[in-house]
Amino acid sequence: MTGELDASQIRFVTRGVTAEEIAAVTAVLTAAAAEQAAAAGDARPSTGPDAWERSQRRLRTPLTPGDGAWRSFAG
Predict the structure, then answer these.
(1) How confident is the model at residue 67 (pLDDT cuts 50, 70, 90)?
(2) In a domain, 18, yes or no
(3) Domain region containing 35
(4) Nearest to 26 by CA among 38, 3, 8
């Protein structure tokens, strides 16, 4: 959506809609479309953690094979 909404793109299927109701709905939808377009333009794609965040991760403890080694995983 481009953010600019033409009133001719809105179709009312409800009968008896007044001119004031049409104007109100058009204003709200136009504002919502503009807000959505602005938010989409501001959003930057997530590329995952940066180098600082990766360096702050805790190191995983070594895995120890053997009988019962995985029992602490569930508890």
Answers:
(1) confident
(2) yes
(3) 1-43
(4) 8
Which residues are CB-neighbours of 3 under 8 A, at least 6 positions away?
33, 34, 36, 37, 38
Q: What is the pLDDT of residues 51-66, one digit of tens each?
A: 888 777 777 777 777 7
Kind plus residue range of the DSSP H or E element containing 19: helix 19-42
Does the pLDDT of residue 32 top 70, yes or no? Answer: yes
Instruction: Assess if residue 26 is contained within a domain.
Output: yes
Amino acid identity of 60? R
Please indicate, yes or no, if residue 49 is contained in any of the structural domains. Answer: no
| Whether this model's pTM surpasses 0.85 | no
Please choose, from the candidates 39, 28, 13, the residue with its C-alpha nearest in 3D space to the C-alpha of residue 5: 28
* Type of residue numbered 15: R
| 3-class DSSP assignment, residue 37 | helix
Does residue 5 belong to any structural domain of this protein? yes
The number of folded domains in the chain is 1
